[in-house]
Amino acid sequence: MKPTFALVDCNNFYASCERLFRPDLTDTPIVVLSNNDGCIIARSQEVKDLGVKMGSPLFKVKGEIKRHVILVFSSNYTLYGDISSRVMQTLEQFSPYVEVYSIDEAFLDLSGIGALEEYGQKIRSTVIRHVGVPVCVGIGPTKTLAKLANYAAKKFKGTRGVVDLTDAQRQMKLMKITPVGEVWGVGRKLTQKLESQGITTAFKLAKMNPHQVRQSYSVVLERTVCELNGESCLELDEVGSKRQQIVCSRSFGEKLTCYSDLKEVVCEFGARAAAKLRGEEQLARMVTVFIRTSPFDKSGPNYANAATGSLVQPSSDTRQILELAVRMFDSIWCEGYRYAKAGIMLGEFCSPYDVQLDLFADQTDSQRNDSLMTAVDALNCKGQGKVWFGGQRPKKDWYIRQANVSPAYTTRWSCLPVVK
DNA sequence: TCTGGGGTCCTAGGACCC
DNA sequence: TCTGGGGTCCTAGGACCC
Q1: What are φ and ψ of residue A64, in 5° steps?
Q2: Nearest nucleotide, C1' to the C-alpha of A400?
Q3: Considering the entire predicted model, what is its pTM?
Q4: How many Å apart are CA A152 and CA A177, to the nearest integer?
Q5: pLDDT grade, residue A82 (50/70/90)?
């Protein structure tokens, strides 16, 4: 049986989340900012129509914000995460196979289902009724075509938010009017290169010879070409597939210059990363620490460095990870810079069930360590910062700017909206 | 004054081996 | 005069995604 994929994507997701408990903002233009209130990472439709670009640094668009009376929100990931899981839960009733692709979109396997457009409309109306977030649905024989269908569903109002692209004629019709840069997997660099070769639309890309594409570009683009022609190369990746890397990093609200400050921040990130790792039920072998000044900071010299180390035994024990992280940090720390960002990466994962045990280690010790970590996680499960390790600095006095953050409406009792 | 964070995959080139 | 060839593994960096 030929596969059928749907891509369900929330419209202006973060902005829609902010509106969910503020019905008074239905027609107000709003933007949501990145961590530290740095860049614009989400815009409501009105703001998109005004031409405010995604990713613009806030200070560069201050004028437009003021002129058009755009309401500004700091990001509230607690809220977005909770709304996201409600959307995903709702989607599960429409397909036995759901791949949560990002916080605001999911692929569904709709193979064998008829009357697809109607089905798509049913998905839309159900999500808006159950969660209150508007979504668009794109349907196609490959993931890339489902993505393309979703693009059309968002762009053309006449589609009422659902496009079924299983028909080859419709595929061609749409691809002829779609700029090549809108194709999933074609980014800025590739767009430039393709356009310089005269490949300006999705249709022209689809008509290229896959073998030549592989030679002049890459196997990735070759796959894209095949997918545009209805040949499914990318499978549905179901929930449960493990991550290969965990990163925890932040820019600081204020530059840090002192060794102990930065070390505490690195430990804080390390502890958070280790907790995430335990949540995944994995062990890590590799730990990388990086620190850097701001590339935009012209007031002094720039410095960026990273160091990677390996644990003797794969572990998810915060203490072992922090011990190595501090060693890595010490090896790259340099006095005299104004640091803007730091982070930690964990990698080379393995399952706790197939670790090679240390011949000389006392196994009762490792069991006790596991219990300790489980206890710490349980104590910290409702938000961070109840229990922490020496070296961490959980009080956040390295300060992240968050001037306009909305309440945690759905995850904190004290923030529950009240109906009068 | 002020420029996000977290992922994946592929490739080229060097080291090393026989 | 004349200096192999082929394979694997690892890493850094680039491109992409949201």
Answers
A1: -65, -40
A2: B4
A3: 0.93
A4: 10
A5: very high
